[in-house]
Amino acid sequence: MILVTGGAGFIGGNFILDWLAGCNEPVIDLDALTYAGNLETLADIADDPRHVLVQGDVCDRDLIAGLLEKYRPRAIVHFAAESHVDRSIHGPGEFIRTNIEGTFVMLEAARAYWNALGGVEKAAFRFHHISTDEVYGSLTADEAPFTEENPHRPNSPYAASKAASDHLARAWFHTYELPVVVTNCSNNYGPYQFPEKLIPLTIVNALAGQPLPVYGDGKNVRDWLYVGDHCRAIRAVLEGGRPGEIYNVGGHCEKTNVDIVRTVCALLDDMWPSEGGSYARLISFVTDRPGHDRRYAIDASKIERELGWKPEETFETGIRKTVQWYLAHPKWVANVQSGAYREWIDRQYGGAETAQ
Ligand code: NAD
Ligand code: TYD
User: Fold this and answer.
1) Which residues contact 171 (CB under 8 A, 6 or more apart)?
2) Which of 16, 116, 197, 311 is most exposed, with the fewest beta carbons within 10 Å of its own?
3) pLDDT for the residue numbered 339
4) Beta strand extents in the chain (DSSP E only)
């Protein structure tokens, strides 16, 4: 079996659902169920004996040692993190704790467990650390996309905490020979993403007739990847990735934020027309995020060359599926918009809108 951390979140949840749809290898899912963890994402496998959910913290050393001893996984896929840049600006402390200390605790527990394994099991074991392209910093319009050789130049507290965790993962391989692989992925989108991130926030706000906040001039560029393609990349790396290596994962899909928001509006106009006219009327340029990185772009040629992975979805197919999924799951959306969600939206956007 494998141990996944953060499996009730957006990418971890998609990963587990895809994993169990494709094979019978059980998954132990360690998740603290923070505001971002959602058991409804895993509702279809709630009674599936191949999925064992453990509510707990990645900083809990004894819990993790006990889980490794009890379940004896062949691999750990470490997703659990605080993941939202804007929240890291308001309150970086939890990012330092979960993303840095949590990764340290996971690596140490994995090292003790792995050291005690014998021959074949020891050689086959993998610690897969899930990271982000944001560790590489920001690109200008004409710079080449990030390769695995780019230095880390994190600009937000979130990116800095992820960069620190990547450095720990690297050091645990070089010093202790723990078989660690790291993937640095670009912005994901798809089903089950919490509506604090740009794409689901746009869909949810548009359907509610609320403003669609675009930071600054809306020209910041992200490289978008459909979450199912990310999950396939992780499976490919688990299977064939070389210990000690980094693999960048991206969709060859650079878009400005305002283009993303306009595309979502156009799809909604087609699939769920509003009586008030195009949803684009709700676009509202708001005060920029402090330290907002201008452009991210990933060169994914290493994973394509070495492991034969490439994205299957184009942005057009992926975004259509995503909008369709949110339209078909109003209950999931309503249930994540709890009191805590409203508090965040008021704190982040309350009164921040400016005229276009
Ligand atoms: P998410 O915020 O949707 O989910 C995070 C999950 O981790 C939640 O289920 C939460 O309950 C859990 N968690 C948080 N703190 C925990 C703790 N202390 N102990 C145990 N569990 C805890 O995040 P996501 O978007 O699914 O991202 C998953 C991973 O992928 C993160 O490591 C993130 O840095 C990375 N990543 C995300 C993106 C993206 O676009 N979302 C892109 C590249 C990399
Ligand atoms: P986000 O989904 O928060 O991901 P990240 O910051 O990790 O890239 O944001 C994606 C882009 O969208 C980023 O450039 C910030 C921008 N953005 C907005 O313009 N408005 C919003 O309300 C949000 C949440 C993000």
Assistant:
1) none
2) 116
3) 78
4) 2-5, 27-31, 51-55, 75-78, 126-132, 180-185, 188-189, 212-215, 221-223, 225-226, 246-249, 254-256, 283-286
pLDDT tens-digit map of 236-278: 999 999 999 999 999 899 999 999 999 999 999 999 999 999 9
- For the chain, residues with pLDDT lower than 70 are 351-356
Nearest CA to ligand 1 atom 17: 57
265 CB-near residues (< 8 Å, 6+ apart): 202, 206, 212, 278, 279, 280, 282, 283
Helix (H) or strand (E) holding 348: helix 339-349
Residues assigned a catalytic role: 133-134, 158
Measured from CB, residues less than 6 Å from any atom of ligand 2 are: 85, 187, 197-198, 201, 213-215, 220, 222, 257, 289
**297: buried, middle or exposed (CB in 10 Å: 19+, 13-18, 0-12)?**
buried
Please state the separation of Cα 137 from the chain's center in Å.
17
Pocket probe mutation, ligand 1, options 29, 34, 106, 186, max atoms within 8 Å of Cβ: 34
- How many residues are there in the chain? 356
Residue owning the nearest CA to atom 28 of ligand 1:
79
Domains defined along the chain, listed by start: 2-194+225-254+291-314 (3.40.50.720)
CA of 199 from ligand 1 middle (Å) equals 17
Distance CA(12)–CA(244), nearest Å, equals 22
